[in-house]
Amino acid sequence: MLHPIKKISYKHIDTLILFGGSFLMARLLEELLKGKFGYKIVLFTALRHLDGVINEKGTTLRAFLENRKISFFEAEDINNHAHLAENVTPNSLGLALGAAWPFEKKTARLFSEGHLLDVMGVDLPCYRGGAHYTWQILHGNRQGAINLQVVLGGAVSFHKGPILKNLRYAIPRAVSQPIDYFNVCLEREITFLVSFFTEVKKGKTFTSRALDENRSSWYPFLSTPHQGLIDWSWSGSDIALFIGAFGEPYKGASTYLGEKRVFLKGCSILKAEEKYHPFTAGIVIRKNGEGIFVATKGALLLIARVLDENGNDIGSEVFAGSRLYTPSSELDKAMGFNAEYGASGLKK
Fold first, then answer.
1. What CATH number labels 224-346?
2. Nearest to 160 by CA among 103, 206, 203
3. Cβ(50)–Cβ(20) below 8 Å
4. Local structure of 59: helix, strand or coil
5. What is the CA radius of gyration of the chain?
6. pLDDT in the model for residue 1
7. Cα separation, 130 vs 98, whole angstroms
8. 330 vs 110, 183, 231, CA distance in Å?
9. Closest Cα partner for 265 from 296, 228, 232, 231?
10. CA distance 307 to 79
11. Residue 333: what are its φ and ψ, rounded to 5°?
């Protein structure tokens, strides 16, 4: 049984220990470097975060940190890192932002009670697991949220700690790709965290609450190259959602053109011009300057770009009358694939 903390304040915090990476980490560091809060910053990150892109210019986290002369520790396993314990004091506050490692109980216990927090950008207890925005797009879910959750440590309590502070908001209907969710949520999350640190400085006492597990859900991590394959037997609306869900910043949902695997980007759903038979699904019925028009069950899809494995635009190779299809053997492999990630990225 979990025992949530009822009341907590963070008096005399002088060191902020950050764990993880991502767009949000870079933006938070920019805010902290302004010196408004006066914290000493200690950063623990992982190889997959260091090599990850943190803005639309394609800058990696490593380049960002080096450019700003921010020192960091790279950790394969934070629970056994030699420099963690020496940086944790009663005046330390730990904050995880997309950390690559689960925290063991012994790691959580290095911190004073309630002084290790996780930033979770989903409507907890819903959407635990991974690939949060991809799953939300697939389900047409536009509930945005950000939570500060107490890390209790250990597998049994993973993402089940009490919530210290949270905000819920609506995702605009116009967004359709993970990058859109990232951009919308990022601004909300930065404002939320700055507000939290301001409250900490003012000596606010926070009241936590336990999660309602009766509304919980969990969805697995995903790998776009292994699982983002289009099943043309789906309805047009489901295919459109799927293409959006694996869109920017990811490689894209994929299928086959002849023997070549291709990746589709930029999908709009149009009214079907006639009742397309299932045998017609995947056929390019028209092509113009806007892209290719593909027949599906119940809808016509306009696909803006067709890319090859290397990201090159190969729209010139697609003609009216071409068929896009995905072999059933590839779909079976996609459904059976289990994506597991470690500090270095996807585990082989």
1. 3.40.50.12230
2. 103
3. no
4. coil
5. 22
6. 42
7. 10
8. 46, 32, 10
9. 228
10. 41
11. -65, -40
Question: Residue 187: what are its φ and ψ, rounded to 5°?
Answer: -65, -40
Question: Above 70 in pLDDT, residue 348?
Answer: no
Kindly indicate the confidence band of residue 56, based on its pLDDT and cuts at 50, 70 and 90: confident
pLDDT at 3 exceeding the cut of 60: no
pTM here?
0.92
Query: By the 8 A CB rule, do 194 and 33 touch?
Result: no
Question: 200 near 16, Cβ under 8 Å?
Answer: no
The CATH class of 7-219 is alpha beta
| Residue pLDDT, tens place only, 133-165 | 999 999 999 999 999 999 999 988 888 999 999
CB 15 within 8 A of CB 214: no
Q: How is residue 75 written in tokens? A: 């950790």
User: Do the Cβ atoms of 171 and 142 come closer than 8 Å?
Assistant: yes
Torsion of CA 61, 176, 288, 273, to 10 degrees: 160
CA distance 52 to 148: 23
